[in-house]
Amino acid sequence: MLARLHGSHRSQYPNPLKFHAGQIVELGVRDEEWPAFAWVKTDEGSAGWAPVAWLQPLDDGRAEALRDYSARELDVDRGEQVRLHHEHGGWWWSERADGAQGWVPARELELLEENCT
């Protein structure tokens, strides 16, 4: 599926959170603006927002990752077209023409075609 950007988007997180399936992470508060996400911290000290649905809560304020995840956001400009791969919690995993990939907020996108990749 293709989309065009209504406005530009720039990541505010230069060192995005990453974790792997089976990894144990510290589970923090949910995001008020994006309730499908919670603040997560790894044992390595990396922190960021992660999809709650992709985490299995444990007893002690920690959670087990159910799948691999990267919080990398994609820097894109107004009018730029991107290929959309999958959506979660109001964000699309997107790909620019140069092959760079990352999350873009759905509210910034205008869908151009409906067939998903």
From TrEMBL:
Please report the stretch or stretches of sequence annotated as the SH3 domain.
Answer: 58-114
| Keyword presence, Cytoplasm | no
List the Pfam families hit by this protein, alphabetically: SH3_1, SH3_2
User: Signal peptide: which range, if any?
Assistant: none
Per its UniProt entry, which superkingdom is the organism in? Bacteria
State if Glycosyltransferase is listed as a keyword: no
What keywords would UniProt list here? SH3 domain
Full protein name: Peptide-binding protein
In its UniProt entry, the species of origin is given as Stenotrophomonas humi
